[in-house]
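Researcher: Next sequence.
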Amino acid sequence: MSRRKILGVFGLPDIIWGRGETLGYYDINTVFISHKDIDKDTVDRIHNEGAKVFVEVGIFAGKDMVERHPDLAPIGMDGNPLSPIDWYMGINPAIDWYREKKLLEIRDVLENYNIDGLWLDFIRYPCHWEVLNPRLEQSSFDDVSIRKFGQYTGEDVRGGDVQDKARWILENRLDQWTRWKCSQISLFCRDVRDLITSLRKDALLGIFSVPWREDDFDDAIHKIIAQDFEELSLYVDVFSPMVYHLMLGFPTGWISEYPLYLKDKTEKTVIPIVQAVDEPRKVENLQEIIESVLNTSLDGVVVFTSRAIFEDEEKIRALKGIERDLL
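Model: Next structure:
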């Protein structure tokens, strides 16, 4: 990583260019783009303005995909597929054909676009966590996952139907089940790391991580989400915890406090992504939020989203008002 701290935005910068402005006018030095929106002209223009391009790829989520391919649905303890929550529907990370599909998508991005980094999103087991009281559900107890778990432990999972097997796992093998689920996430990151090494070795691998500690929700970061940060740090260059303070009901101080905890835990580069979207209420102090991150040992900040900023004149002034010495 460059010594200069990252000041990034998530989303296409066309709204900035539509104002007749450049990224440099706001000292934006990094743009995160969904792989669904990427094109060579946009990448070239961002680079020509002196900024880096990091591409986001969503992995284990997608309501439309589950509707088309019911085998991707995560199975709950009752033997039924988990139900979607609003826009969110998780995907079972253990399905091999789907993992290969996502790796092919990532290969295509790495081969065809001159990007500086690739960030994995929804790189976890199912959970709609961006609320005050998330619904915490164990998954996935489908035949594929149970078979793979049995291979992992070297013993058959006991029980007749799905409910019996799920109960036996959680009552007798919870620690092993948790470690196995975490391995499904970490090994996918390893496979992406290998692709980057072979195709675009100077590109960074980052992930958007859930901002929980072990003592949050009875260690749900491992038991439910299956993100083991120490294990992931073997493959991941940059962690970007999604510190969406208003969605989660935290004060401004938490926005930098949690990423500092994660940086100490992983000993990796940490660039948190902060909330500019007005949900559940308007973000009133964007400049304070950004500066609270930049004024620490953290490696930068990315703001979610570019459109949330540049459709609001108050937020535009906040971005322009950031103390430039912090960069």
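Model: The chain has a mean pLDDT of 97. The radius of gyration is 20 Å.
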